[in-house]
Amino acid sequence: MTRYVLVRLVNGLFVLWAALTVSFLVLHLVPGDPVSVMLRGGGGEGAAIDGSLADELRADLGLDRPVHEQYLDFVWQVARLDFGTSFSTGDEVGAVLARALPSTLELAGASLLLALVLGVAAAVAATLLPNAPLRSAVLSATVVGNALPSFWTGIILLQVFSFGLGWFPAYGDGEFDQLVLPAFALALPGVGLLAQVLGRSLRTALAEPYVRTARAKGASRLRAVTVHALRNAAIPAMTLFGLMIGGIVAGAIVTETVFARQGIGRLTADAIGAHDFPVIRALVFLAGALYVLVNLAVDLIYPKVDPRIVLRSA
């Protein structure tokens, strides 16, 4: 087990390095100059820029050096977990992330919990229903949430439950009632995927001999599903749930913008618009580290759920 974890962590470091290198190259190849954006401020594209001031600022930021020197300096900073200073605000990037992260963690945690509870409930309900048309209807209803973009779902939820009924506030964060609508908007696509995958796995597991044996011994259909079949059927759903974490973090960019939440998603959108390279690189590192750690955690949970699974390093 220890060897497996070490090998996965080494592979994860390679994934992080590759993601950061690609992000570095892309940011330096795309059109746009962060110095020009900073100096124009609110003046728009047509605002005049003092060339000498731009050159001075570019030198202060190290953007006048050759790209390979900037890359080596960037790698050294990342190795020390030092992402420098934000071009936009002048604050340390770590402090900028620390301010935005709690709101996104709150939203992501609530969304994942909702997706898990509703997805499992829909899959189990569809499996327990007495006839095929009802089962198909339940699973088909979950697909609707998956087919709708989260920003569109968020706008509809705002129109109905905020502007129409007035049950929840339209924007902001920090309070429970401000979390409900964005959490539902972000969770609905995951509910459909989880219900579909888990529902299919449950139907497969119910056809296994051990479930038929339990039924022959007098176990009810509810017990056969929840006690005997659900644990083995959970493996594919666990894999999907791990991937959903990355999807929810990505979806937070749009959802936090719609609901005016000051989190990582909103920070990402602002940093891209301002060509704030240090913040973007830190966000790429954070997303890559999350991907590596979540996938490792899911792999380590597999043997706990199904003892037949044995983890071996290559």
For the record, the CATH architecture of the largest domain stands as: Orthogonal Bundle
CATH class identity of the largest domain: Mainly Alpha
Largest sheet: none
In total, how many beta strands?
0
3D shape: flat
Average pLDDT figure: 75
How many structural domains does the protein architecture include? 2
Order of helices and strands: HHHHHHHHHHHH
Indicate the radius of gyration in whole angstroms: 24 Å
Distance between the termini: 12 Å
CATH homologous superfamily assignment of the largest domain: MetI-like
Query: Could you tell me the strand content as a percent range?
Result: under 5%
Question: Could you say what the CATH topology of the largest domain is called?
Answer: MetI-like fold
Considering DSSP H and I runs of 4 or more, what fraction of the residues is helical? over 70%
**Secondary structure tally, helices:** 12
Spans of 5+ residues with little confidence (pLDDT < 50)? Answer: 42-47
Which structural class do you get from the secondary structure elements? mainly alpha
List the helices and strands and how they pair.
Layout: H1 2-29, H2 34-40, H3 51-61, H4 67-79, H5 93-128, H6 132-147, H7 150-164, H8 177-206, H9 209-216, H10 221-258, H11 264-273, H12 277-305
Helix pairs in contact: 1-12, 5-6, 5-8, 5-10, 5-12, 6-8, 7-8, 7-10, 8-10, 9-10, 10-11, 10-12, 11-12
